[in-house]
Each structure stands twice: as C-alpha cells, then as structure tokens.
Design brief:
The complex is a heterotrimer of chains A (307), B (218) and C (663). Chain B has 218 residues and is mainly α. Chain B contains seven helices and no strands. In chain B, helix 1 runs antiparallel to helix 4 and helix 1 packs parallel to helix 5. Classes of the chains: A mainly alpha (307), B mainly alpha (218), C mainly alpha (663).
Chain lengths: 307, 218, 663
Amino acid sequence: MGTLVRPELLLLHALSLAAAPLLPGLIVRTKALIAGRTGPPLLQGYSDLWKLMGKGAVYSDVTSWLFRAGPVAGLASVVTAWCLLPSWGVSAPLSFAGDLVLFVCLLGLSRFLTVLAALDTGSSFEGMGASREITFSALTEPALFLALATLARATGATSLSGMLGGRMTHAWGAAGSSLALTAVCLFVVLLAENARIPVDDPATHLELTMIHEVMVLDHGGPDLAFIQYGAALKLWVFQALLVGLTLPVRTGGLLADAAAFLMGMIILSMVIGVVESIMARLQLSRVPQLLIGAGALAAFGLILTVR
Amino acid sequence: MTAAQIADDLLILVVLVDLFTLASSRLGTLIRTVALQGMVLGVLPLVAHPGELTVRTVMLATGSLALKGFVFPWLLFRATRDEAVRREARPYVGYSLSLLVGTVMIGGSFVLGARLPLPFPAVSSLLVPVALSTTMIGLFLIVSRRKAATQVLGYLVLENGIFVFGLTLAVKMPTLVEMGVLLDVFIGVFVMGIALHHIHRNFDSIDTSELTSLKDEP
Amino acid sequence: MIIILVALGVLVASGLGALAAGGRHPLANRVGSLGALAGCALGLAGTAMSRMLGEAPSLRIPWSVPGGELHLEIDALASFFLLLIFGLCLMAALFGSEYLRAHADRKWLGPPWFFFNVLAASMAVVVMAADGILFLMAWEVMALSSYFLVNFEDEKESTRRAGWVYLVATHVGTVFVIVLFMLLGRESGSMDFNRWSGLPGLPPVTAGLLFLLAVVGFGTKAGIVPFHVWLPEAHPAAPAHVSAVMSGVMIKTGIYGLLRVVSFLGTPPAWWAMVLMGIGVTSGLLGVLFAVAQPDLKRVLAYSSVENVGVILLGIGLGLLGISYGEPALVLFGMTGALLHVMNHAIFKGLLFMGAGVAIHGAGTGRIDQLGGLIRKMPIAALAILAGVWAIAGLPPLNGFFGEMLIYIGALEGAGRLEGARVLLPIAALVGLALVSGLAAACFARVFGVCFLGTPRSDEPARASEAGPATLASLLALAALCVIFGLSPGLALSVVAPAAGLLASHSDLTGATALGPAAAQVAGVTHVSMILLALIAALALLRRGLLRGRETRDAVTWDCGYESPTPRMQHTGSSLARPFAEVFPFVMPGRRQTAPPEGHFPAAASLRVVIANPFQEWLYRPAFDRIQRGMSRLRWLQHGRVQLYVLYIVATLIALLAWFMAF
C-alpha cells in the first residue's frame, strides 16, 4: 500500500483534480483553431460548472431515486478510479498488486450507473444512447484489459503505479513495438470511452446520433455539473494512462517529471483535437469494428511480447 | 536501430496490413494497402539478408518492389475500373468476426512458429510466424469474400506470406526461391486477371456467388 | 456430524408430514416450511460447528446395498458446499412459505414442500457422500425431486415440456456419471472415495477418459455449453424459490462432482486445463449472449447461470493449468476465485430468481417488454434486486466483483510468468473473461433498466404492489450478504479458504494453501471500497447542500420538445438487445418478420425479431427429431395386448439367463 505522506505529492494530486476541466477546453480550443475560429476561452469548463452548481433542478416525474443517485455515485466511482492511477510522474495515491482490474471495473461502475439513470427517464432517446453505450463498452473493456495486460507483461508489474513507473523506460527498450501497438489501442479506447469523434460526437445536439450526451439529456443543475466534471476527470484519467505509457520520463526530480507529464497531457489533448477536426464520425454499425480492431492490435502487441 | 530491429518492425507492419485487409470493405483502399505490403516486402530482403548485400539481393528487392508495389495494384485497378460498386458489401464472414478469426490465426501461427523446426536459424524470430499468419489470412480472405477482386487480393496476401517464408530459405537456395516466388505470383495474377475478365463479361459483375447459377437445377 | 444428520432427518420428516397434511393447505404449508427452515438452520449450525472445530468428521455404517456402504464424510470441500446448500435453502424456504401461499387456492401444497425438503436433503447427501453408490442414489433423488418441483404448474403445456427436457437431459448426464464411477470402481476395486483418491499410477489415457466422462456427466448438471439446453427450460418453469435453489446450488453440485473426481485423478496434464478453460470461455460467452437476447425475465437469469458456470470453470481451468505447469500463484488465484464465484453466484442468483418471482407475481407477466417502473411500486424489493444486479454485473464494491477479480489476477499472473506459447492460454482467459463480464454488466443493466425503471409498459405492472414481509426478509438478507461479502472480501475469503487449500494441496504445492498473496488484494479492495462509499456520502451531502432552498420541480421527460410521451415510446428490452445481435450475428441468429407500412395512410405495420438458440435449432432439435422418427418404427411393439407384453418379459428373462450361462 502506497500512502500519501509528503505534502508536495498531496498538492500535485489535488492539482490534477482541479485541472481536469481544462482538458475538454483545450480540445475545443484546438478544434476552433483548426477551423479558423477563436473558440471559447480555455476556462469555459469552470464557468459552466460554476453556473450549473448554482442552479436548481428539474426532474422528470417518471424518475425514481436512482436517477438522482446516478450522477453522485457515478462521479464517486470515477474519482475512486483516479485514485489508482499514477500521474505527474509519481505513484498513485493508492496502489496494490492487481489494482488494474479494480480500475477497469470502477470505470465500468460509473458507466453502469449512468446507463441505469438514463433508462430511469423512460425516454426513447436516452434508451437509445444507453443501448449503444452498453454495446460499445462491452467491446472496449476487453481491449482495455488486453492493453493493460501487455503493459503488465512488458514491465513485470500488475499494479498501475508499478507498470507506469520507472520500469516503463526499460520496457520501451525491450518491447518497443508491443508498447507502440498498445498505445494505439489505448488511444482508440480513450476516444471511445470519452465520447469523442470518430465514435461519438460531444458537440452535436442531434439526439438520434449521440451516445453519451443523449444519456444525460434529462439531468440538470448540480447533477449535470457532477456528470460533466466526471466526464472531464475520466478524460484526465485516460490521458494520464496514455501519457504514462508514451512519455515515461523519470529524471528523479519531482518538478521535471511533473512538467514532462503536464507537457504530455497538453500535447495529447491537442492531438485529440486534431483527430476530431480531421475525422468524420463513423457509422454506428462500423464502431464495433473499430473497437474489435483496437482489441486485435493490443492482442498482437501482447503476442509480440511472448516470442 | 539495428538491421534486425528494422526487419522486425517491417514484419510487424506486414501483419498490421493483414489485419487491415480483414477489416476494410473498400476495394480501392484494399488494393492500396496490399500494395503497401508489397513494398514493405520489397524492402525486406535489403535489411533481412544475413550476409553481405549482394547484387542478387538488390535485384530481388527491386523486382518484387516493382511487381508487388506497383504492377499488380495497377493491374487490379484496371481490372476493377468499370465496377460500379467498389466495395465488398456483404462478405460471407462479417468484418468483426474476420478480425477475431485473424487475431486467433496470428496467435496460432506464433504457437506453430515456435514449434516448427528450421534447418538453420532465421534472421528474425518473427519471420516464420509472420509468414504463417499472412498465408493463413490470405487463404481466409479468399474463402470468406464474395467478390473476385477481393479474392485476388487475398491471393496476393497469401503469396506475400509465401514470399516471407522464402526469405527464411533465401540464404541457402536463393535463386530457386526468387524465381519460384515471382513466377508463382505472376501466373496467379495472370490467371485471376483472366478469370475476372471473363466473369465480368459473362455476368456483368464480379460477384463470385453469381457463379452458382451455372449449376444445373435438379 | 450428528447435528447434520438430525437436520437431514428433520427435512425428510417434515417433508413427509407436509405430504400427509396433503390438501389442507395452511397446515401443509406450515409443516413443510417450518421443517425446511429448522432443518436448514440446524444443518447450517452443524456445518459451522464442524468447520470451527477444524475436523473432517465421517460416518461409516455397513449397508445391505451390494457394493455400497453408508459412508459420509465432511472435508473442507464438502463443508463449503454444505454451507451454500443449507444457507440458500433456508432463504428459499423463508421465501417459499409466503410465495406458495398465493397458490393455496389452486394447488396442494404438500407435495411441493415434500419435494423441496427432499431436494435440500439429497443435495446435502450428494456433497457428503464418500461412497460411489450412495452418491449416485442421492444424485438421482436430487434429480427426481427437482423434476417434480419443476412440474409444479403442470397444467401448463410449456411446463410439462420443460420438465420432460430436464428429465431427459439430467439422465443423459447421469449415464456418464455411472459409467465414470463403474470405471473408477473397476480401477480401484472398491466404491469407496477414500480408495479412489490418489489412485496409484492410472495410465494417462484412462485418466483422460475418466476426466472427459466427468466433464460431460457433471457438466450436464452444471449446465455447460453445449449441454445447457435443459437449463433455460427447467429453471424458468419452476416456482421462484425452487429456481433459486436449482440455479444457486443444485447446478453447483456438478461443479462439486467435477472437482471431487479431478482430485482423484492425480496431477492433471495441461490439456485438461485447456478443455476446462475452453468450455469455460465458450459457456460464458454464449451464455451471456443468449441471456442478452432473451425476452423473458427468468430465462435471462437461467442463461446467465450458464455464463457464471463458465466463469467458474475458467477459474478451475486456470487452477489446473497452474498445477500442471507448477505455478502456485495460478493455482491459488484460479481455484480461490472459482470457489468464491461459486458462493457469490449462489447468493446473487438466489436473490435474483426470487426477486424475479416477486416481480412476475406482482406484475402478472415475466415478459421484459411489458414490464417497467416497478421500482416505484415495490421500492424495497427493487432495492434488494438492485444489489443482486450490481453484484452479478461484477461491479465493485459488491461481492460479485471479488471472485472475478481473483480470476483476472490469476490470468494476469499467468500471462506474466509463463513463457512461450503457454502464455496464450491465460491471455485467452483474460480476454474471454473481460468480454463476458462486460456483456454481463450490459445484460443486467438492460434487465433492471427495462423492468424496474421507466414507466410501466402495460397495465399489469402498473397495478403491482410491494411483496410480503417474509419475502422481503429473505431478499434483504441475501442482498445484505452481497454487500457484506463485497465490503469485506476477507470475510468471504475465510469461508472459501479451507476448500481452496484442499484443492491446491492436491497439487503438492503446499505453500500455496496459505492464501497469503491474496492478502494484498483484500486490503486494497477494502480500502478502495471504503473510499468509494465515503466519496458517495460526501458528494450526496454536497448535492443536498447545493439544492437546499433552491427550486426543484417535476416535469415531463424531455423528448425533444414532445409534450406527451407514452410508455410505449420507451426503448424496449428487445431494442436494447438488438445491437448485440448485430455485432454477434453468428451467435444470435435473428429471424425478422416485417410488415412494412404501405400506402399513403399506413395503418398497421409490424416488426418481429426472434433470436434463436443455435444449439437448439441446429443440433438438438434435428437430432431428437431423428431419434423420434427412428423410435417410431418400434411402434408395432406397443399394441395393448397384455398377453404379448407378458411374453416380452418372459423372452427377456430367458435371454438374460442364456447370456449368464454363456459367460
């Protein structure tokens, strides 16, 4: 069990909780730049959250207590998953051997609760979103597991903090091609799990074509704030995973490592923005193919570590 | 990066192209990716040769690069030029399942490759598994797709697999392998080209399932 | 041991008492249920006591049955299964006492209680038996009593058919078990389990044959693919508390039998593990995909039992793989995970089957597409069922998660430690399990979302009301177990540990029995669960604080500005399942019948999609049709003349006599 003792680590972890809403802003800004617009300010996410926190709420008369509990428990499980993931080049607040299983399942829990809350409204749109979400997530989960298993095998550790720690640098030397394939797979999983183009479109308001946005149509006020903050934190978590894999800088100096991590997060957000700008959303019937393809890549990467 | 590492990376690229051919439905993209595979294979002898770089190796590389990377794709583009529908709409085995099958095949060929005894050490430990999986995936493409053009592509992938196999033997009996490989491919494309042409002329389509209408109805 | 024997006596006696009380329902119901409760409670106490004392009591009485002996023994494995059997039967009896009363005006309640109590007793004897003949007798009594329970609503044609399918399937399985036991008896010269264990030097071919016989014979009872077809027929037909017992513990006797026989056969070769893992992944995947496609609540649960048995076999397979490759970590995590999942599945599947009974009874239908909104009609039952759904989806922090997690870690350890082509096995297990658990979460999100949330899709669910106190008590008790074992996995582990240690020690890996390595996971998961709960509480308080004093109002569900949505406009269970049929068309062959709208003013249009079970469609129905056609040629034997029938008997006797004389 790794526990928090040093105050500067505490500060860093608190910083990542605070900085999460920046990432969607960065992506939107990148997209705007490429499209030749100015775009909303970088801190737009914070003012949105602030505004929502200050509002009352409207509930559908069909809904039950589960609808109100969904956003609360969903955000709690994302925060808990975040607790297991190392960032800023230092270990996670919590870690034990095999914690990657818990990490994946906690993300699954938040999704499960979102889906139940969506079905609680009795709306056909939200039902449609829920249907797509459960189908696609059933396919992303094996891909994510395969990717994490490759990392575990390449580094010889089964905890997230262990495998994204100092051993990653050596692993790149020994099994570079496997890790590169894994990174591609994780990038696809990131796009799918965070409702990004080409799987989902966070910007559209056409209910028929959306997945994540349509599931939260009926939430408002603080509930919606929880959901949006949860989505931002989930993006942070996945980006941190990918940055930990692709940019394993371990100089020994806390500040240098943290700076490298921050750099990686910013670049990755911009890459996502670029991908969103140059790609079209896939036909829904083609999405499973993309996800299975990502899984196949990760499987191939894992096989390559074996020979 | 050493030559062996580059060879490994190229071989990985070959497998990635295999996976892509299983998932793609567009004819044009398919032809281009298989052409890419051909180019990679053309470069491969230059890095995967065990001894010194000989003139023969260079010629083999140039020849296969030209044929696999440019001539065959060009021929295929020509053959399918008039085709109205340029995508494989409903293959016998769906794309998702194809990907799964392909992954299992890759796993299987790594198992087989580990057990297959070679008379002499290969340049790269990936050579045999990659050859096996490329061959199997090529075969799978032939049996699981409907259009003659896609089947020709499967045939090309299959040939590429055999070519990789040939590289393991290229040390001991180079000429034999080279000539065999090139001739084989050439005849293959020749035959398939004619087949495509004739199917197309007689049925106004290159969907091979139309051929079942030739059977006498009882 | 004495207490358990008394418990068995109480069960059988009260069953007979209920039978004697016969048609007078209040008395029969009371005698039967009280006897079942008392018997199971006694049995639970006895098992707990023998575990506390840490001994393996045995009882040996010579018996007049040829070749047999009344030999009972309770080792760690048996006592683990006894806990499950008595525990779940206790809850089911509590539930049944109220559930059956609703049928009192139409049914005699004596026979169902008789068969229920006999079923409980026979399951207990099955796991305690240390003699082949005794085991087979108990096995058969178990099959027959559950057959009669399945036929409870025998006025329905579908129920009679389900019972018939079950009867045939279970006996086909039993034939394999009989052959297996005969071979074992021949090899060892005795029917005593003690003589069977550690059979010296079985030739590998014989051992392999015995293993395959055990897989088919016990696998049929456990419901593995492709021998699972009876399960989705029989379990939904039975009354809810009986389905709970059948799905929760009766099919686990198949797992028990398999584990027991494998422990006789010495160190397993790697291919046994591959067979079990292959079956595990196939059963898991097909089971959960069929479950997603089912339109009927109880059939979903039945297919999900197939899936969970697959997960259990996957764990056992990993364990065997570890034994044969000499990797203690694999043995430990695989076997412990499998046994934990056996226990967890008994708890949450029992809960869910009984919960489904409540929902179906309240709403008058089990068709998912006609249910909806039950959470507001029966809030307490729905809360308990939510716990079950949460657990079966394998999500933290409830109990379903921890067993699967240990199997995952076993597979990861295997993928990290093994070298060469061997690694592919744990990798395949990992991917299979990930796919299965993801699909299971999807499946139960669908079931709970459609049945309990939203608005009622037809009139009946709108009139449903909360269940009675005994029913709720049993549901809540099981839900509490889900929560307790989830939040303190160490407690659950301590229940399983002796049995897992027993299984692991057959591998000569004595170091693996200490369960030490799992301690890190126990501590980690407990910490994380606590953090999760604390965060939920904190965020809930924050939300309450934010909303205090502000306006919250009710409105109609947002439907793009549409003002009067109707229940029929909700997404249905079938629509939720449809994307899966598109991704996996090869597992879920759907037939669609469409009548598209026509004309300028279209009136009627319909779309009907039926998703079939390919095994039933392409394997069993043609096979049985052919058998039936073949058998119908023998019709001429049956003509109704008694004299000729007697002649048959005489002819048979003479033929047998001649056969004996000849050899």
